[in-house]
Amino acid sequence: MQRVVGKFLEYNQHWACEKHAEDPHFFEHLAEGQNPIALLLGCSDSRVSPSVVLGGNLGEIFIHRNIANVVSHADMNFLSVLQYAVEVLGIQDIIVYGHYGCGGIRAAMENEAIGLIDNWLANIKDVIASHQSELDAIPDESDRLNRLVELNVLAQIHNLKQTSVYRKAKKEGRELRLHAWVYDFSNGTVRVLEQA
Ligand SMILES: [Zn+2]
After folding, report:
1. Cα–Cα distance between 149 and 153 in angstroms, integer?
2. pLDDT of residue 29
3. 45 given a catalytic annotation
């Protein structure tokens, strides 16, 4: 029964009542507009929900998620989110939020044909190709996958810097800070990666 989607609607009813009881103006204030602290690009994986893990309240994190938190320069969906976040919402902090144990990263590494998603995973295969010798030198498979998760986050930071939105913001002297984070759901903590 726990897996029935109806439980989400039940939860929502309780939650909305509770919030309203705590603060009768809570939803009124949210409806006035948003002023998020950061844009976060994360993986679609159901175990990494950023608002839960990072304690983001409603209105605090502008979120885009896809398989393996990829910045693709042909992805109008993400690029539109990025432009809106930077140019309309005035967000200055962008977090790429990968996670260890990522199925998308594993699938790219295993290199087996799955179908349509192979085209998406090609973005990660490019990361593998760029770091082939470093990855080949890691004997343990799970260590190798974990390193690829980190390299992928760093590669997406690099890709962010190549977007027209980022370049325009920099040209106009606007401050944008990029953060490379990896979530570890085996212990619940987020690791901050050093950027070159
Ligand atoms: Zn993932």
Report:
1. 6
2. 93
3. yes
